[in-house]
Each structure stands twice: as structure tokens, then as C-alpha cells.
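Good morning C.,

I know you're traveling, so I'll keep this short. The sequence:
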Amino acid sequence: MVADALVYHPAVSHYLKFVATTVGRDKLLRLLQYFARFYAWYLLRTNKPASSIQPWETMKKQFGLVRKVMRAGKNVEHIKAAAVAADSKNGDPILRYLAVGRQLGYAGYLTFDLGTLLDATGIRKTESAKRLAKESQRFWVMGLSCSVVAQAYTLWRLRQREARVDRKEGEGVVEAKRIEVERAASRIQLTSDLCDLTVPLSALTWVNFDDGIVGLAGTLSSLLGIYSQWKKTA
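The C-alpha cells, ready to paste straight into the viewer:
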């Protein structure tokens, strides 16, 4: 039957694995949140009535709040990851230090973000919420900056490795393919990080990005995140 063919289709099983992960659900919500941010800006710029803009503004705010609740407590994960990276004796020391910086940046971001949760949900309004939000954005910039430098350095190292590969030999061909896979993953991560940087830089008013740019950048990085998570759950 058609219904059985749909229910037992491999794509459905893959989708269930994807949405079973917190990361998968977060990326889907993030995609909707940042597209709503862009589209609300677009409607405003094209002089659409407030009644048309309001649903998208509400979607942006509500999905942002849901994501804030979902990531509560995730700072502990990044604190542990920073400690593991610091204790590691393997690999390139530059990448190790950048990994520590990235994880500490994300840990700081999520810790201060957690401090704004009661205010954001309306449970308890506090005067310090705006200050904590700014601190969280500064730590996010730190984590993303470390990640950008790490990916740029990784791409440089891959070029160095590729120059030493002898493609005439069987092992050289395998190594070249391995380098291509690593390069593609690094480029995706670098693009995603650069897009994400627009969010805290705009929030801190360090760079004057409007909601159209931030919304599009967030939408793109969300799509890249969905793609990466989809591959992981294959």
C-alpha cells in the first residue's frame, strides 16, 4: 500500500533520527526564527501593514525563546569540552588552543545567556538582564572568532598536505580524496561561523548590520547546520 511505502520509507526513518536529536530540532527552529527575522524586515521595507508584519515578528521572538529554553544547561557541555581539549596531548597545538578558546567562548555565552532566562520568560524581571545579554554576545564573538581562525588554519594545513600528495600512487589518490572531504567540511564550518558572527556583532552594535542581513546570514548558517546534522544522523 501507498501508506506503508511512505511510513517505512528510509527517508522517514532518517527524519525521525534527525528530529530525535536536540541539535536537529534546534536547527529547524533556528531556520524558522531567522527567516522570520529577514521576512519581517522585508515586509517593513516594502511598506506592508503592521498586521502582515506582526505574525513574523511573533514567530521570531517565540522561536527564539523556545531555543533559549532548550539550550539551558548546555554550558556545562562546553566547559567539559574545553577541559578535554586543554588536557589533550595529540594534534596540532595551535588547533588545540583555538579549540579551548572556542569552547570557553561558547561556555561563557551560554552561561550568561542562562542568566537572562527568567527575565526572557517573564518569570522574574531583572535590571541586569540587558548587561548579561551583552556579556553573552561578547563571549559568542570570542568562540566564533576562535572557530573562524581554526578553520582558516585548517584550510591552510590542508593545502600544505595536498602539495605533498603524489596522485600517481594509489595511496596518494586516497589521501587526495580524504583531503577533499576534510576541506569541504572545513569550508562549510567557516561559512557558517562567518554568517553567525553577524548576529552578535549586530547585537553589540560593533557592526551596523540591519535585520535583513542578519536574517539572511542566520538562515544560511541554519541551513548549513541542518545539512551537517542530517549527514551525521544518516
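Safe travels,
E.
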